Amino acid sequence: MPWHFTIDVDWVPGSEVGLEGLLDFCDQRKLKATIFVAGRFAETYPDLIRECWRRGHELGTHGWEHGSLEQDEDFRTASYDQQRAWISLATEAVEKASGVRPIVFRAPSLWIGETTLRALEDEGYRYDSSVPARRFDCGFGRVHYLKYFRAPSEPYRLSSSHLRLPGHSSLIELAPSAFLFPINMATLRVLGLPVMRWMVRRISQRASRLVFYCHPHEFVHAHRQSFPRNMSKWNMRGMTPENIPLLDGFVQHMMRQGYSPTLFAGSFSTSCAG
Ligand SMILES: [Zn+2]
């Protein structure tokens, strides 16, 4: 079964060390990742972004300055022109760094809307991985809206009328996997490997692929990085290089379950619903 190992590179000065560590980890485990990069990060560390590409990973974008802002970029409410500007700036920064134009997008904090789809189509994007299907963060996390809770877990062409519905957009959605809580590094850190194994089992009963994500800043001590003042304290406390062995336990579990790492581009353009 395919699974997508994805990395959200927020604009967090100091987190570049975490990305370097993740690249080495991917080499060791022969993982090819889809790496979503905030534009300012690509602009500041172009050599590192080029290195991601050189090692065989796929590059996408993840907002412009997301990660450094107290008032974060919100693709649910921003105007078309504003969203187009953020996406365009990030796309140019990643393309300038790597030589390749990204066509895969993940919205900061999975805050997305129908206007975002129009902006992505107009920028030539082909894949999105932002719709928080089956996800609602009780208490902690960033997803506290239910508009897309019933979106499909399988890949589907988006509808311009409602992102929850299959339609005829040029963009294919691959929602990050969730069983109320997301299949991500924060859940692994907080709830542990046994709970994650149980969640993967439940999700695999109705989904033929899985999308996991983690952040480079989760693998670096918080005091070595620059965060906005409103960054949550529970999150900062759990940031450490020792999360690499924890991640390794999860990755090895996925491999044993027969999941094979897959990139977004080209892997299911003809077979998906809608
Ligand atoms: Zn992010």
How would you describe what is shown here?
- By secondary structure, the protein is an alpha/beta fold.
- It has a single domain (2-261), classed as Alpha-Beta Barrel (TIM Barrel).
- The chain has 9 helices and 11 strands.
- The chain has helices spanning 16-28, 39-44, 46-54, 80-98, 114-122, 185-191, 193-204, 233-237, 243-256; strands at residues 2-9, 34-37, 58-61, 104-105, 127-128, 156-157, 172-173, 178-179, 181-182, 210-214, 260-261.
- Strand 4, helix 5 (114-122) and strand 5 form a beta-alpha-beta unit.
At a glance:
Helices cover 34% and strands 13% of the residues. The chain is globular. It is built from 9 helices and 11 strands.
**CA-to-CA gap between the ends?**
21 Å
CATH class: Alpha Beta
Radius of gyration: 17 Å
How many distinct helices? Answer: 9
Proportion of beta-strand residues:
5-15%
Set down the secondary structure blueprint.
Layout (H helix, E strand, L loop, with lengths): L1 E8 L6 H13 L5 E4 L1 H6 L1 H9 L3 E4 L18 H19 L5 E2 L8 H9 L4 E2 L27 E2 L14 E2 L4 E2 L1 E2 L2 H7 L1 H12 L5 E5 L18 H5 L5 H14 L3 E2 L13
Parallel strand pairs: 1-2, 1-10, 1-11, 2-3, 4-5, 5-7
Antiparallel strand pairs: 6-7, 8-9
Helix pairs in contact: 3-4, 4-5, 6-7
The structure holds zinc ion (ZN).
